[in-house]
Amino acid sequence: GMIGAVWAAAALVALPPLFKARPRAGECALSDDTWYVLASCAASFFAPCLIMVTVYCRIYQVTARRHAAVLAARGSLRPRPLHPTCPTEPGNGAREPAGPGKRPSMVASGRRRRSQHQSVSLCRQRLVRARERRFTVVLAVVMGAFVLCWFPFFFTYSLGAVCGDGCRVSKPLFNFFFWIGYCNSSLNPLIYTVFNRDFRAAFRRLLAGPARPGT
């Protein structure tokens, strides 16, 4: 449903210029009709950009709220176990050696197990929060690159349609803005590679080629 709606919107933006008579045969130029320029700019950039910024702000608010809740829960746990790394299994090595005339305390053992279980739970929550923060940063960088690359083109394109020749930029500069927008598509793989270890590992495997038998 959503994918079909996106394709339908793209078709509505792209098809109208095909039915317009071309002033020069063999040349596909951008339409300069005011109604089409404003409608296409709104549907192609300004409306999606507004939606993305709104959704990102919502994601950031939810992530910040969850992070604050984890910090509050962590601060309420007393005593706080000191573990440099996350233990993998609670209760591992929790028993004390019973010497002559000594019996292991079941109460102390239960407390140790609860403390280790809380430590494991907090470590897992910290890992999840760190993953969410990385996702938020990557999403912000992707959105920022999209806006920076496409805003100059859509702004000058719509401004020229509204104001006429008095507001149009030079053709070389307009072409530069046009191609900077398309260069945005090549930035996303670089952004994901820089900020995501899984992508980096996958690219290394692709560049290294298939693994040889016995290696």
Automatic annotation (TrEMBL):
Designated name of the protein: AA2DB protein
UniProt keyword annotations, A-Z: Cell membrane, Disulfide bond, G-protein coupled receptor, Membrane, Receptor, Signal, Transducer, Transmembrane, Transmembrane helix
An annotated Gene Ontology molecular function: epinephrine binding
Transmembrane stretches, start-end: 36-57, 135-156, 176-195
Signal peptide: 1-21
Record-annotated G-protein coupled receptors family 1 profile domain positions: 1-192
Record-linked InterPro entries: GPCR_Rhodpsn (IPR000276), GPCR_Rhodpsn_7TM (IPR017452)
Cited SUPFAM superfamilies: Family A G protein-coupled receptor-like
GO CC annotations, alphabetized: plasma membrane
Region of interest called Disordered, as start-end residue ranges on this chain: 81-118
Subcellular location per the Swiss-Prot or TrEMBL entry: Cell membrane
Record gene name: Adra2db
Membrane disposition: Multi-pass membrane protein
